Amino acid sequence: MSRAVCRTCWTWYANGESVCPKCHTRLVGADNRASAVALDGAGAVAPTPSPTIATPPSAPIQPTADAPFPAPAQSRSSGISWPVWLLIVAGAIALIAVVGLTVLGLQVTGALGPVTSSDGVFSVKVPKGWAQGSAVTTTITKPVLALAKLKTTNGVKPEFVVADLGQSVPLAAIEAGWDPVLRSGRVTVPGTLGGLTRTTIAGAPALSVEFHGSKYTGQLLFVDYGSKTYIVEMASDPTDFDSLRDSDFSALLSSWQWQ
């Protein structure tokens, strides 16, 4: 035969071979390959094996224009271990829990005076009627900036606290696992935490969530910058929060600058 093909590994030969050197299957000629059959070692007719067709790999998921950070590879799992999840949520809760006790030894900074975080990474401008203080240190997060409004409502000072989570945690992973973690019942929250929404702070990607309690209402922000993940807590008496969110809190966030 001038040309022959192996019906097992589908390799063509043109040097007079009758048996495939690779798999030792009898070759089929080019002229009668459509009707030819392979013979087994005893000369009996053997069924013609079907070629194996490789399945192409799935195309990678491409980021979209409305996604400031990439989604995790699998939507059912955030890729964050439970100890880290407890650190994230408990760190946010720790800030809520110390509202009203956070700012000690207030120092008036003056209207619109800029202040820099203790780690030197960012600064904000202090609105009129606000002052800088020292934040109560928790065992879960490290506060790097604490501001409070001098005027209280129902005995509650509106506060703006920023804490370093202590490690960099992908925001996409926080976003993917937030709702399942809250629904798991393994984390207790003083009040209610809502769903996450995407935003930015001074160009850095961030996630925002509101919380509501009987004494405090506010907003938490998870901010990713460089090798740090920050938690920002803005809280006040429930009757004040809506107006502060659109005034003093908004002014603080819009004045945020990375150093």
Map the helices and strands.
Blueprint: E1 4-5, E2 12-13, E3 28-29, E4 38-39, E5 45-46, H1 82-97, E6 104-108, E7 114-116, E8 122-125, E9 130-134, E10 142-149, E11 159-164, H2 171-183, E12 192-193, E13 197-201, E14 204-212, E15 217-225, E16 228-236, H3 241-246, H4 248-254, E17 257-258
Helix content: 10-25%
Unreliably modeled segments: 31-67, 71-78
Query: What count of helical segments does DSSP give?
Result: 4
Percent range for β-strand residues: 25-35%
Please state the structural category: alpha+beta
**Rg over CA atoms:** 32 Å
Distance between the termini: 79 Å
* Large-scale geometry: elongated
Order of helix and strand elements from N to C terminus: EEEEEHEEEEEEHEEEEEHHE
Mean pLDDT: 73
Strands, count: 17
Taking the sheet with the most strands, its summary is: 9 strands, antiparallel
Account of the 3D structure:
- The chain is of the alpha+beta class and 259 residues long.
- 16% of the residues lie in helices and 30% in strands.
- It has helices spanning 82-97, 171-183, 241-246, 248-254; strands at residues 4-5, 12-13, 28-29, 38-39, 45-46, 104-108, 114-116, 122-125, 130-134, 142-149, 159-164, 192-193, 197-201, 204-212, 217-225, 228-236, 257-258.
- The strands form 4 sheets. Strands 6, 9, 10, 11, 12, 13, 14, 15 and 16 form a 9-stranded antiparallel beta sheet that branches. Strands 2-1-3 form a 3-stranded antiparallel beta sheet, with no helix packed on it. It has a 3-stranded antiparallel beta sheet with strand order 7-8-17.
- The chain is elongated and about 100 Å long.
- Residues 31-67 and 71-78 have low confidence and may be disordered.
